[in-house]
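Practice set, problem 2.
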Amino acid sequence: MLENIIDKIIPNIPAFILQFIAFVILCLIVMIFVYKPIKKILQKRNEFVEHCIKNNIENEKKSGQILQNLEKKISSVNAETLEIIKNAQKESKKKSEIMIQETEMLCKEKLQLFEKELNNKLKDKNDEIRKLIINTASEMCKKILTNEISKEDDQKRFNDLVNKLQKINDEQKNNI
């Protein structure tokens, strides 16, 4: 029994050497056929990831520059737009002022024409009134010279003349 226990504690040296050689061969086979290809694949993947990271960094720099350029362009376009709007406002203000001046001039011309026309009508009416006064006065003179007129007839004729003049004046006011 003691021998059994000793046999179990001390290994079999030829079996141990054989297993050790098999282990070493297995390790070599695994290194040659498994480890090296996996290491190459991992190295390629690592290179690919590093390449992607570099590309991403470069793309971020480029996109940052592009973004800055676009922001500059946007700000310049905004400034140009504001300038265009200001110029358009100034121009429209000038045009509106010109239009207002032209309208005022047209109104003044129309007013002057209306005043001339009114003055002409007033002259015509005044001429008519003068003619009527002259005709009435000459008629009265003829009657006075042909007949003697009493004070009552004279007063009546004067009142008729005043009434006619009032009617003509009222007609003029209505026509105006």
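Problem 2, part (b): a different protein.
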Amino acid sequence: MTPTRSLTRVPALIRYSNPITRALLRAGLPMGPNVLMTVRGRTSGEPRTAPVAVAEIDGRRYVIGAYGEVNWVKNLRAAGEADVRIHGGIEHVRATELDHDGAKAFFGKTLPGYIARFPWIGRAFARLLFGFVGPEVLNDPERAAATRPVFELSPAPGEADRSDADKLPSR
């Protein structure tokens, strides 16, 4: 039996540092894979902005709900689309959640292969980070797939036709 997703809370250190991270990213400070993602709230309809890490792997983009079923994950699942501030611009993307088998393959093959390409300091940081966030991300793909949603981000249809004014305002 596959364990259910039970994580619902971001650690306090991350919660308290998110406003600073958001401000630094808005100011254009590069912070590795971290970007700002704006999603419509699932109940309010208001735009909600959160810092997230986007992994660009072999021409595809992924975002991991590292802390499980947190609000941005629920909002992205409901909306199916978001605006991502990345590479100096805002891109409107479609978000497709990987099913359990897809997430298991992601945690079992795609993510380890991606991390293996990092320089030694990057690999050490990834081990430290995921050891803190959840060791199963690197050691137990079955459990990681059951507890940590993964979304693939792809360009939304008609993106070239949208102006910045049509995109979600960030908050």
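Answer key, part (b): The domain at 12-166 is CATH 2.30.110.10 (Pnp Oxidase; Chain A). Helices lie at 12-26, 71-79, 100-116, 120-133, 136-139, 141-147.
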